[in-house]
Design a protein that fits this description.
One of its GO terms (cellular component) is cytoplasm. With 378 residues, the chain is an alpha+beta fold. The protein contains 8 helices and 24 strands. The strands form 5 sheets. A 10-stranded mixed β-sheet has the order 3-4-5-22-16-24-14-13-8-12. The protein has a 5-stranded mixed β-sheet with strand order 9-15-23-17-21, with no helix packed on it. It is globular, with a radius of gyration of 22 Å.
Amino acid sequence: MPSPLSFPPHSSVRGCPLVTCGPCSVTEYGPREGISYAGSGAGTGGCWLQHPTPFFLSELSVPLAVPYLDEPPTPLHFYRDWVCPNKPCIIRNALQHWPALQKWSLPYLRWGLPWVGLGVVLWASGRGLNVHSSRATVGSTEVSVAVTPDGYADAVRGDRFVMPAERRLPLSCVLDVLEGQAQHQGVLYVQKQCSNLPTELPQLLPDVEPHVPWASEALGKMPDAVNFWLGEAAAVTSLHKDHYENLYCVVSGEKHFLLHPPSDRPFIPYELYTPATYQLTEEGSFTLVDEEAMEKVPWIPLDPLAPDLAQYPSYSQAQALRCTVRAGEMLYLPALWFHHVQQSHGCIAVNFWYDMEYDLKYSYFQLLDSLTKASGLD
C-alpha cells in the first residue's frame, strides 16, 4: 500500500512534482499548489522526511511541519485532505471578511460601540439570539476570568491537578491589567470554554461568523462551542488533548502552539492526580483547596518546553511540531492532537469546537492508549 504522503507514478494529482530522497530512495510528491510548509527544510524541494526521523511518520500521515493554505479549502478538500488523515494546517485569508479583524483591539473591547436597534443573530445552535439596544459598553460587561499565581490553569502542580480560581470581573478590569493601568494578584486569562462568546459577550457577535461554513458543511454539524480568549503573555495552556475538531482563529496578536500527533501517545506520560482549585484570599494570596468529591484526574505532568528526560526518557522519542498562528490566520487542530499553547500579551482569539466523530481514528487511539498503559510506558 502506498504511503499516505506518496502517490504511484501514474497519479493524475496536479501541482505535485515528484521528489526523490537520496538517503532512502523514497519518491514522494512535493507540496501541492497553494500549500506552503513551515519549518526548516520544508517546501524546499528536499525530502519531507528529515533524517534520521523514521519513515513510519509518513506512513502515519504525520507532517513534520504544519502546512499553510493560502485560502480556505472547499468542504470536500478540507474533509479529504485534512480531517480524514487527521492533519493540522494553518489557513490564511480565512477571516478577512470578519469585522473583528479590523475592529478588535484593547481600546475597542473597552469602549466598543453601542448596540443599535433590535436584531437577531443566528448563532451556532441554529437558534436566534436577540440583540437588544443598549448604551452599555463592552468593557462594562462582566466575564468569567481564570486567575492563577503562575499563569498555568488546569495543570499539574506538585501532586495535584490544579484548576484556576474563577472571578467575575468587568472586562475593563482585565483590560486595565493588560494595558498596565492597574495590577491584579496573579495572572488573568479570559478562557471560559463553555461558549463564552455568545453567553458572556453577545455584543461582539456581529463582528464574527457564528460558525465556519466550509467546516460545518464538511463535518456535517454546527460547532458545540464558540469561545473567546484574552489574556496575559504569562497565561499558558498545559499539554493536553481534546475530543474536538478545533478551528482556532487569532484576531489580534499571536498564539504559539507546540503539537504532538496522537501517535506520540506512547511517549507522553499520564498520571492520576487529586483535583484541587486555587482560591484567592482577601489578602491577595492563593490557597489550594482539594475537590474531595471529584475523582482523580489523569493529566500530563511533563512540561514540553523543559522536559525532565531523566524522569520521562520516552519523551525524547516524541516528534513535536511548533507553529505560530498570527492575526488573521486560522489553525485547524484535529481532534486528539496534544497541544501546549502560549501567546503574545493581550492576544485576542476565537475558536470553534466541533465534536469529533467517534470512528476508526478514535478506536485506533483508544487501542494505542490501552497498549501504552498495558506495556507500562506510562
